[in-house]
Each structure stands twice: as structure tokens, then as C-alpha cells.
């Protein structure tokens, strides 16, 4: 896999957060942390897309209880993604 170098600008608070994550031993360096954030974002968006597709299928199935359940799950998932 080829790697590409990116330059980003962070606030003092954001920079402090990244440093704290590295110092806690969760990540070896800034790049590992940023790559982990990107992977998590990709996974969250994929899960949300699956939920939305299930919502469309449930809505078109004509079974209202499935539609309501999937809608609640999609809204709940969106809220979790926003607060994460």
C-alpha cells in the first residue's frame, strides 16, 4: 500500500488530545491515531449506509412495525455517530 503525506492544522486543544492519546500508549505516533480515526469514520459511515438501506427496504415492504423499528435504529445510530 502506498502512503501519502498530508499536512494538517490543529488547534492547541486538538494537538493536546492527540499527544495524550499517544502518551497513553494507545498509538505509537500521530499518523497511527489519524489513520485509526479515518478507519472508524469509514466503518461508522458503512454501518449507517447499511441501516439506511434496511430502512428503505423496510419502508417498501409495507410492514409498518419493521419500518418504525429501523427508523428508530437509524436515528439512534446517527445520534451516536454525531456524539462520538
UniProtKB/TrEMBL annotation:
Top-level taxon of origin: Bacteria
GO BP: regulation of DNA-templated transcription
Keyword list, A-Z: Toxin-antitoxin system
Family annotation (SUPFAM superfamilies): Ribbon-helix-helix (SSF47598)
Keyword Oxidoreductase among UniProt keywords: no
A Pfam family assignment: ParD_antitoxin
InterPro entries attached to this UniProt entry: ParD (IPR022789), ParD_sf (IPR038296), Ribbon_hlx_hlx (IPR010985)
Its biological purpose: Antitoxin component of a type II toxin-antitoxin (TA) system. Neutralizes the effect of toxin ParE.
Record-stated family: Belongs to the ParD antitoxin family.
Protein name: Antitoxin ParD
